[in-house]
Amino acid sequence: MNHFTSVHDVDDPLGLLRLAQECKENPLKFNELGKGKTLGMLFYNSSLRTRMSTELAAYNLGMRVISMNVGDSWNMEFEDGVVMNSDKAEHIREGAAVMSQYCDILGVRSFPSLTDRDRDYSDYIISKFKQHARVPIVSLEGSTVHPLQSLTDWLTIEQFKTVKRPKVVLSWAPHPKALPQSVPNSFVEWMKITDYDFVITHPEGYELAESFTEGVKIEYDQDKAFEGADFIYAKNWSSYLDYGKILSMDPNWTISAKKMALTNQAKFMHCLPVRRNQVVMDEVIDSANSIVIEEAKNRTFAAMAVLKTLLEK
Ligand code: AN0
Ligand code: CP
Fold this sequence. Notes:
Strand content: 5-15%
Distance between the termini: 7 Å
Radius of gyration: 19 Å
Structural class: alpha/beta
Largest sheet: 5 strands, parallel
Number of strands: 11
Shape: globular
CATH superfamily of the largest domain: Aspartate/ornithine carbamoyltransferase
Number of domains: 2
CATH class of the largest domain: Alpha Beta
Helix content: 25-40%
Strand order of the largest sheet: 9-8-7-10-11
Number of helices: 13
Bound molecules: N-acetyl-L-norvaline, phosphoric acid mono(formamide)ester
């Protein structure tokens, strides 16, 4: 594994999952491994979980951490061959190379524009970092996927499943703001490497990119999708087809107790942050079947597995 920017970077996903489980059992088991090594984290967008859990993961491995909000640094130019006479003071070529002098691993969070689909789906910023940095790059959520979240979600399902092959349902839910497709794309990508009974449900018009959903069951009737489910993974995303648009705010898609009653006492999952009584009703997220806090806790162990693997490379 040279980078961790999607499931495709991972040589042995099952091995990575097992390592995350090992880190969870004993978080300080490898606390000498990262001695003298530095993780740099660069945030183009807000974060609570990714920032705190990845920092903690690095500390558990004995690393040091330098975190920066991009707004505090120089505005960077990513295009090659331009005359730099605008507001951009530094080029990614120097920026990434210089950060590689200080850091042994670089994490980058960069959300999509939701206006330019081709640029977003080239994972433009993370790709540029991969191109010009001289150290491994970790996606802290890019413009198409969020692999640290998905590895965590897999770890969480393995922790809570009571049958060998659980039914896992990814359900779209309403939200007042246009959100990226990164979390659902990534969740789909990682679920495809499991043998779970995996179903996606969303209103028409919310189809994710076929490159992600090829071969995956899609059920447009949410009630039908929920029947017999062991896990409900809720997430809003904006339209991929009508790129970045909100096509529906239908409250019938909100995850309610009535909807959960259709399932096989399913566990409720969400990557967080979540808007209560928009995406999910209080009665569900506050119920005993909600595992969102444990899911967030597992972010640390997924990040540890990733950092450990990259450190040993
Ligand atoms: C982001 C998203 O939907 O991708 C981050 C989730 C981890 N969510 C929001 O912007 C609310
Ligand atoms: N789930 C997640 O990535 O949360 P943050 O956006 O708070 O990092």
